[in-house]
Hints:
CATH topology: Rossmann fold
CATH class: Alpha Beta
Largest sheet: 7 strands, mixed
Amino acid sequence: MPKADWDSYARVNAGERFRAQSAAIGSQVTKAIVDEAKIVPGAHVLDIACGSGEPSISIAALLAGSGRVVGIDISPAPLQVARGRVAGRKLGNVEFQQADVHQLPFADGTFDHVVSRLGVMFFSDLPRAMREIHRVLKPGGRASHLAWGPMEQPYFQATIGTVLKLLPELSVPASAKGMFRFGKPGTLGESLREAGFQQIEERVEKVPWNWPGTPEELWAYFQDVTIPLKPVLQQIPPDRPEIRRAILDELQTRYDGKQVNFEAAVVLASAIR
Length: 273
């Protein structure tokens, strides 16, 4: 995925416009990866593809002033948002920098933990990225990844699935299918094994994925931030308003008057260097 796509004005603007809702919808996914990482006081942690700051910020708060958290992302725009989120908070143990997972700017054995929340699916050269993660971990260090499960789950079926049902001539491009590359059980764990990791654990977990707002807000947010699916969304004909109505109808069925409720299927995988 080209870096410019992730730095798009629409995506960054949506992240700012819906800052509170964006944090809320991903809060349980953040909790899941933080719990999976089993971080101890004083740990040095690398968060890969941290975007606008999570789970870096949650980990820094958990460490309560001890240790060090470095959040990296290939795109500079969301990192500016991340820096803004920690400004004014007493979190002197977290920093953000632009870096590429395929060529990490850290010495061998720098970190106790490496985590990535919804980032590993987008590593363009997965074996190389996993080897780099292995390299920067200390012996006995723990790598933890959280990825999307299969596309066939309610959040995506209600949104992009509705589009594809009403416009069967469209299809999901290969680059977007990569979002769900670890939906097949065992594939994420195998990538860790091939990089030299040991004690590999992998499982699918269902976590709340709830949007505190209206269906209309969620659909606006989805269109701007779900970059891999943009090629499909951009092909929706402007003279087909019934498609938008159908999507909103699907989201309405999950709206309780306060939030749109989903349960996300995610893959969690951890391993030891």
